[in-house]
Every structure is written in structure tokens, then in C-alpha cells.
Amino acid sequence: MASTVSTTSGHTEASAPVAVGLWALGGLWRAAKAVAAVVRPVGWVLIAVTAVLWIVGERLGWWELVVAALVLTVAIVLCALLLIGRTAYDVDLDLGRSRVVVGERAVGALTLANHGERAILPSRVILPVGAGRGVFAVDRLAPGAAVEELFAIPTSRRGVLAVGPVSVVRGDPLGLFERVHHRDEPIDLYVHPKTVSFAGQTLGFMRDLEGLPAADLSPDDVSFHALREYQPGDDLRHVHWRSSARVGELMVRQYEETRRSHFVIGLSTAPGDVSGDDEFELAVSVTGSLGLRALRDSRRVDVHVPGRALPAATGKRFLDALAGLDHSRPRDGRLEELAGTVAAAVPLAAVAVLVCGSTVDAARLRVACSRLPYGTRVLAVQVDTRADDPELRRIGDAAVVTVSRLDQLPSALQRVLS
């Protein structure tokens, strides 16, 4: 037993220096990574050139090279000393609106405050915006002081832009070193597609027991509204005899129309179903306009693109989803497969709208419309930026509308309803 204890103790004593050595190596590695993180590529080049000058000058006895190496060494040390200093700003990034429409300017404010007890030396603040970035030069900030920088973000294209995180950069005039501290969290800026509003019901309704009551009154439906006096031509089956006996004249029931409110839109985002980015953006805007109109009409809206369904419970969520929409993968299917997906997902839809580009011919449109559920009112909106005037034609039981601009959509839909 004594021998065993002695062996264990010796093993522990032998492993202690190893553990200390590993800990020291880990600390050196972390320190080396921290130092390497602040050196820019130009700095590495200058450091390498300085080392070569030192070695060559010492070995060959060329004092000119030694003097040059000494000058470069002093410059590198001075630039490194400029990294010393606090960058502990309190950063507040505020966007006036986190949702804008294409073409609008998003305005924001960046506030930097020094709540410490010592001044903060001049530094640069970098604000990434999508693929670009904005750079602000901040002067020396005294304790308790604050500075506000205003900025505007042009929005020429639909998308979701990440604004931030804010980076505080401390560097040197030669650009050899750069110390970056990240502050705050990024904010998503949603650039919604352009939409057009139009009055009236979009495509009509179908009556349904589970529909929503509308403001229109009907002599025959399931949602009771009130009693009124009998008029010639009224159906005697709707006479309320008890009230008629009490009043002394015939009274008939009047109803609110109930309407089936399930509205589904299928937007083909397959690369082969649209001709170029302009047609794709127009198709997205048409989809947004139709969906918003249906939501204002208190309909239940489902929106499908190849491979997935878009959230459309509210107008905000719907436009947010459209803001981040891009071309789908070819394997996700084209318009015909999308129509089959819509039919399987929403078999009891009242109205189904298929939105596609000019590259979809009449034969493919016929196949796609035929795959939608029987009894569903079908409309196809085809966008064609090369067309002149809106066009209305029929393919089977479906109405097909062709538009070349977004402002043509209201009048084109009015022709469908007429």
C-alpha cells in the first residue's frame, strides 16, 4: 500500500510542470492572437521589411540599412502606441422607421456618449449597412459628453438590410494597426416592395357557412340581420309569422351576406418563369398589392412560392416576407408544380391568383390553372414589361390579365369584374 501511494504522488508531481507549461502556452497563444488581430496587412509587410533590413544590415555591415531599420522600428512603435486608449462609448443606434418602401430614404441617428471619468481619444466609427458601410470621424470626447451623427440610407432596391453592429475603430495615420470594438446589436431595415391600392372588392366572394358577414344585405343567407316589411317578390319562406301577427303586417327576415374569405396567391419565383429582375420585382409588387387588398377585405390570405408558404397573417408580416424574397431554386418547381402545391394546401379556397412572368406560355398557364381545385375562382396575372397596354383573355375557366406596369393593375382587375 505504501508503494502505491508513493507512485501516485510522484506522478502528480511530474504532471504539475506539464500543466503549468500548457497553461503558459495557452496564454501565449491567446496573446499572440490578440496582437495579430490588430495588425493590418500593410503593417505585416512593414514589419517583415524592417526585420529583413535589420538582419541584412547587421550581417553585411551596411549602416544605411541599419538606420532605415531603426527609423521604421520607431515609426512602428509610435503607431502601436496610438492604439492605447479607451473606446468605451455608450452607443445608441436608432432608426426613425425600420420599414420603408423602395425609393424612400431611411433616416437614423447614431448617438455616442462618454459616461466614464476619463476622456476618449479621437476614433472612427463604422456603421455597416447591408453590403456597404458608413464611416464617422469622432473627435475627442470629454467625460459626460455625447455626440450625435445623423445618416440617411437610400433604398433603391427591395430587401432586408442589416444596419450595424456599430464598430469603434482606433488606428494610426499610416494604417498599420487597427483595434476594433463592436458595440450595439444590428437592426434589420425592411425595404418593402411598391404596392398600389384600389377600391372595391378585389375579385368577388363566394358564399359559405363559415364566411365573414359583410356590410351588404341579402334576402337569403345564413347570417340574420333584422326584420323588415314585406315587399312584392319576397320569398314567403322568409316571413316571420310571429312578428307579423304582433305587428299586423307581413314581416320578412333580412340577412347579411356571408362570404367565403379564403384567398390564396401563388407567386412563381422560379428563374425560368420571369424574364429578368424588372419582371420579378413587378411580380412581387403585384402580389403585395393583391394580398394587401384581400387583407383589408378581412379575408384569410395564404401566399405560396415554390418550396414554401409566406407568412401573411397581417400586412406587416406579409410585406416583411416579400422584402426578403428572392428567386427560388430550379428544383423547387415552376408554375405548374406551384399550382399543385396550392391545390393541396388550400383545397377550399374561394379565389386563387397565380402570378408569373412573360416566359410562361398559354399552354403552361392552362395546365397550371387546371390543377387548382374545382369551384375555385381562378385568376392569372402575367407581368410583361415589354407589353404596351393591359390585356385580358380567358384560358379555360380562368381569366388571364397581362400588365406591364404596377399602375395598370387596378384597371385590369376592374375589367375582370365587369
From TrEMBL:
The keyword Transmembrane applies. Pfam families: DUF58. The keyword Membrane applies. Residues 227-401 form the DUF58 domain. Keywords: Membrane, Transmembrane, Transmembrane helix. PANTHER family: SLR1927 PROTEIN, SLR1927 PROTEIN-RELATED. This is DUF58 domain-containing protein. It comes from Microbacterium protaetiae.
